[in-house]
């Protein structure tokens, strides 16, 4: 098996790889609905998205050799932590092939970024805002397209995240 490497997203080319990964992973999933590229570009633009006035984020890609096999974003939401009087960090945009090593290293890398900011609790996957757009991991109903503000995932995602040491906080129903 080729070497696994986790790299921060730094360039426009990296960001395109980040945006293109879900389409590759879900190519055979008729229920997958790709997000609008213009919305993604705005959300990941630190000069245009208002989130970055009260928070920060770092995106990462996992590579096996030269192939992108996973992605994640580590998020610090200062406004959330001030309001909740907490030290909570978040992860989002978790996408990965069925590879426990890649998933584990992506999650550990995000956790390390959050620890550097003295955040002691990790919640995810969530989106950048405190509105929690597309929260959680889908655990059944994979054959249905997502409803507004609901997550869609590949059937093995829950096992990857739990296998990396994360525990489910709650169930939601849509």
Automatic annotation (TrEMBL):
**SUPFAM superfamilies, sorted:** Acyl-CoA N-acyltransferases (Nat)
Q: What is this protein called?
A: N-acetyltransferase domain-containing protein
Q: From which source organism is this entry?
A: marine sediment metagenome
């Amino acid at each position: 098996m080729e070497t696994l490497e986790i790299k921060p997203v730094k360039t426009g080319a990296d960001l395109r790889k980040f945006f293109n990964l879900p389409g590759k992973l879900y190519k055979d999933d008729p229920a997958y609905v790709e997000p609008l590229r213009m919305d993604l570009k705005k959300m990941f633009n630190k000069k245009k998205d208002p989130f970055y006035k009260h928070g920060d984020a770092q995106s990462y890609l996992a590579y096996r050799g030269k192939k992108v096999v996973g992605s994640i974003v580590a998020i610090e939401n200062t406004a959330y932590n001030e309001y909740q009087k907490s030290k909570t960090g978040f992860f989002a945009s978790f996408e990965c092939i069925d590879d426990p090593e890649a998933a584990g290293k992506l999650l550990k890398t995000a956790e390390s970024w959050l620890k550097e900011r003295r955040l002691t609790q990790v919640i995810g996957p969530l989106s950048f805002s405190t509105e929690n757009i597309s929260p959680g991991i889908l655990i059944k109903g994979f054959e249905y397209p997502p409803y507004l503000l609901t997550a869609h995932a590949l059937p093995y995602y829950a096992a990857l995240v739990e296998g990396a040491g994360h525990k489910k906080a709650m169930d939601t129903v849509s």
